[in-house]
Amino acid sequence: MKLYPAIDILGGNTVRLVKGDYAAKKLYEDDPLATARRWAQEGAEQLHMVDLDGARTGEPVNLEHLRRVVAELGLPVQYGGGLRSLHALEQALAAGAQRVILGTAAFTDPALLRQALDVHGPERVLVSVDVRGSHVATHGWLKTTDAPAREAFAGLREQGVSDFVFTDIDHDGMLDGANREEIISVAQAAHEGSVIYSGGIGSLADLEALAGLRAKLHLEHLSGVIVGTALYEGRFTIAEAQGALAG
User: Fold this and answer.
1) Whole-number Cα distances in Å, 152 to 130, 132, 159
2) Structural domain boundaries of the chain?
3) pLDDT classification of 166: cutoffs 50, 70, 90
4) Is the distance from CB of 178 to CB of 145 less than 8 angstroms?
5) Which tens digit of pLDDT belongs to each residue from 34-48?
6) Which among 37, 38, 41, 163 is least buried, having the fewest CB atoms inside 10 angstroms?
7) Active site residues
């Protein structure tokens, strides 16, 4: 399993939210590039960057930070937040993103999803299935739909999506451990694709449990995990996390 250190950007700063609540943010660094340097120095092999301003406004705001990170460090970056048009996707890719993440638009604009997959290929377009109370949330997690997670995965697979990010919003930033049943459900729902899990990771034991669950139940579609707050709070290092995921 791959480790994706999270860099969430709000107002030009690196922050972490709790359960997606913009009012419950904690500032960790005033320059996202400094955060990326730190993770790179610790041995990160890829990064997960989210433009929280873009997620809230509907168009990318922090692409310059993506450009700076890629130009200096050269690490693969998957980037999301406010990518709700083909132009926005192309801007993010031109800024250096290896892969772009569609969230809201994947559920509100099927035509855009088809275009993105046709133009850039499923290997460069991830879809983020963000779930609160077992239902998909959109618009920067500010709205919750009636769509259950498993149905969302099935519908997206039919449209040609193969790679997913799954966020358990109820555990995001809580450091209370991953939801075992939810992980099994989404890994199976990904079917022949892959899913990167996010939400609740607070200790090395949580990562070891994920890796053990993947091996024990043959959940090969569980390809990675996004970790944010636990790294920022120094609960473990990048190297320790990678070791835990390697079993």
Assistant:
1) 10, 13, 11
2) 2-245
3) very high
4) no
5) 999 999 999 999 999
6) 41
7) 8, 130
In this prediction, residue 87 carries a pLDDT of: 97
Q: Cβ contacts of residue 223 below 8 Å, gap of 6+?
A: 1, 2, 163, 194, 195, 196
* Fold (CATH) for 2-245: TIM Barrel (3.20.20)
pTM for the full predicted model:
0.94
Task: Give the integer Cα–Cα distance in Å for 5 and 10.
Answer: 16
SS3 state at 72: helix
Helix axes 180-189, 149-158, angle to 10 degrees: 20
Phi, psi of 103 (to 5 degrees): -120, -90
The CA–CA distances, whole Å, from 203 to 6, 42, 206, 216 equal: 15, 17, 5, 20
The CA distance from 30 to 12, in Å, is 7
At 232 the pLDDT is 97
**Whether pLDDT at 219 is above 80:** yes
Q: Side chain identity at 80, as an amino acid letter? A: G
55-77: burial string, b at 16+ Cβ within 10 Å, e else? bbebbbbbbebbbbbbeebebbb
* Residues 40, 75 contacting (CB under 8 angstroms): yes
The pLDDT tens digits for 46-72 are 999 999 999 999 999 999 999 999 999
Please state, in angstroms and rounded to a whole number, the distance separating the CA atoms of residues 104 and 137. Answer: 8
